[in-house]
Amino acid sequence: MFAIAYCIAGQHDLRLVALAAGMCLLTTLTAVLMLRQSTRAPHAALGWTIGGALATAFGIWATHFIAMLGYDPGFQFGFSIVLSAASLAVVATAMLAAFFVVERRSGATRLAGAGLLAVGGIATMHYMGIAAIDMPAHVQWRPGYVVLSVLLGCVPFIAALHVAVRRNSLRSGLGAALLMLAAVVSLHFTGMTAIHLIPWQREAGGANLSPRSMSVVLSIITVALLAVCFGSWWIARRARAAIAASERQFSILAKGISDCALYMLDPQGRVANWNTGAARLKGYTEAEVVGSHLARFYTPEDQAAGAADAALATAVREGKFSGGGWRVRKDGTRFWAHVTIERIQDEGGRSLGFAKITRDMTQYKLDQDRIAEAHRHLDAALENMHQGLCLFGPDERLLLRNERFLKLWQLPPEACPPGTTLLAVIRAALEGRTGGAVAEARVAEARQRILDSLDEGADPTIVAEYDADFVLSVDNRKLPDGGWVTTVEDISERRRSESRIAHMAMHDALTGLPNRVQFHGWLDAELARTANDRAKVAVAAIDLDRFKEINDSLGHSEGDRVLREIGQGLAGALQEQEIAARMGGDEFAVAKRFEQAAELEAFVARLEASVFGGFAAHGSLSVGASIGVAVYPSDAPDRETLLNNADLAMYRAKADFAERICYYEQGMDEQARHRRVIANDLRYAAARGELRLLYQPQRSLLTDDVVGYEALLRWAHPRLGNIPPMDFIPIAEETGEIIRLGEWVLRTACAEAAGWSSGQNVAVNLSPVQLLKPDLPELITAILVETGLAPTRLELEITETALIADKARALHSLRRIKALGIRVAMDDFGTGYSSLDTLHSFPFDKIKIDKSFLADSERSEQARAIIRAILALGRSLSIPVLAEGLETDSQRELLLREGCEEAQGYLFGRPAPMQDAGALARTGS
């Protein structure tokens, strides 16, 4: 080191040394400037590289020879032109090679190689320059200093290249220039120290340059180098200003964009900068996010899946990545982002990082999701439509069809794809249903029907019936663009339903017979036709007897079965020009067109056999029927009158137990009107005070004491006078008014009996209709509580016919009544068909012999025998017997002889109000 310092200070002119150092600094600054320009201006890289290499080579060559001019070996010397020029060529070549290496690739290895090339050229130039000195001395080299000079040149020069290329600041540029200066100066003066001169006399060589001439050359080179350096600086300055302005504008543009995130990533995927849009979109400030990895903005599930690294890998592999996905803001909320990541490289292919653009597409995503959802719903609606659907374009080609269309025509899934012509669709549909080829004429006809339905004003619906089980409704709706929508609906079931409804509208649902509407229509048509010829029309009205009792006791299902049997029987008995109908409830009507009376007789005989032959016992109940017949035109001039008169005849048959069939006769109208008046006025008789109770005493034949009274109902009609019970009681039972009437009688009798001071019993008759009421025991209990009458003073009288309708129910009700302490008597005993069975079924408290037996007893031994048998039966069963209708003393003696203990009749007094009946009982008359 001391030798190097001595060489500089002792053997050199320091002024020229300083000049050489200044020249070298100017050269290295120019070298750094041009190196940077070559790497930053790809479009002019070649010019900057060549210019920079040559300027650096000339500068270092000039530095060397300026320093050589300041060298004082102790004798005169000159410079060989050939070697001096050769040394310049060597250093120029080395610098060109080094600059090209740096410009092409700036990797560490490449920079080291470029440094070695440059230092090798400088060292070669240096030692060739020393060899170019022509002086009277022999140069002896010190190898150690030679090697050291090269090393001292390599290390700082390689470092200078790294600093010059890898960094961009002014300070780093100055540092790189100083490192190059140190490398050149160290190599030069260490190399000069390696010289040991041994004087010897020799002649001057060929063409040499004197120090003065060399000074001129070096001055020219220096001036040129200064010009090059200044020009490079000026150009670089302009370029930097332009770049700075461009970068500033870009930065303002990038950072000012607020509707999308725009930022850079380094090669490892870390955020390098951050614009305003990124801060607004993601919520992070630049200080919070720079240096963070891209994955920070991904959802946890995407982070776990490595989505960020996959996106970067795609960008590296393909140059660009584009995609969408959910991203996370700083506050944890999510947004749908459309992301673009582009790989950025320098001209040498070295990765500089990535440019990333993120846009908030949440609303677009939601809109697209809604549209997709709407499309899914539309697809679902199309595929789940009850109708088949086809959409045709103006060119008669299929655009769309749903699965229902294929199913309706029994076509495979691949049939009728979009683009199929209308003719082909029709042909495929018909062949799918028929299973074979279809004539072209039929296909063309179907096409024309569809096109005709699209005309303005035409009916858009075509009903196509292919067979009984396949009926289609084809609806065609034209669209503004000339196309149309065809919907196909299978209405086969609807047609069947319409047929069923039409049948139901004209037929009875239970029996299947025509209903009232159809029957009336048939009658109207036949009466109109009969008016023009000599034919007649007969109508038979049929009403079932005791049908309500079937429904009440056995249930409506049993009643329905009875009605179906009647309907089937009537339908089976019909012949030509006859009709049977169910008019409602248990009423039927049958009509016939005929000309001869014999035809009517045969018709009625068939009806009788059909109706009565089909009846059977239903449990303990039996059903009958009543038939009334009326004939047009002899019995009625029109339909309504004819039906009414048939009903009148039917009611006459119902009232007469001996007749089942009754023909209409003149005068039935008056009787019917009279019955209707009674039925109507009976509803208000109690409220108007027209009803009253009379009492007939019941006496002991042994003691002649009154044992009780029977309450008898009387009706004093304000216009018709006194109406006998035998006239209004059956009407009350038919209309159901007997329920309210019987309750009034029972309540009134109990109330009046409760006020008798004698304390005798009161007997009240029960109608069969009352006995079948399920709540009869509760009603009687309520009346007894209301009136205060003791149950033991009440006696209820029933007839055997009351038990015929529903014996089981009647007996159950009687047992509940008897359990209250009420006495139960059998009235009119001996007139029924099962008297003994009735007595066996229920423990009656009294038997009342029907008055008809006592009335015949004076002239009929048979009547006396019956009375004797009934009394014997009562004694054997320990049941008291009371005889009704006692009117003469002989009848009283008969009863006494046969052992009868109680009786009632006109002999003891006629029925009278209680005050009169009581007076008669006291007098015994």
How would you describe this structure in keywords?
single chain, 925 residues, alpha+beta, Beta-Lactamase, 5 domains, 8-stranded mixed barrel, 5-stranded antiparallel β-sheet, 34 helices, 19% strand, rod-shaped
**Shape summary:** rod-shaped
Across the major sheet, the strand order is 20-21-23-24-25-26-27-28
Give the overall pLDDT as a whole number.
Answer: 81
Q: Provide the CATH top-level class of the largest domain.
A: Alpha Beta
Q: Strand content of the residues, in percent?
A: 15-25%
Radius of gyration: 68 Å
Low-confidence spans: pLDDT under 50, at least 5 residues?
A: 616-621
Domains (count):
5
Assembly state of the chains shown: single chain
Structural class: alpha+beta
Gap between N and C termini? 183 Å
Query: Helix coverage percent of residues?
Result: 40-55%
SS elements, strand count: 28
CATH topology of the largest domain: TIM Barrel
| CATH homologous superfamily classification of the largest domain | EAL domain
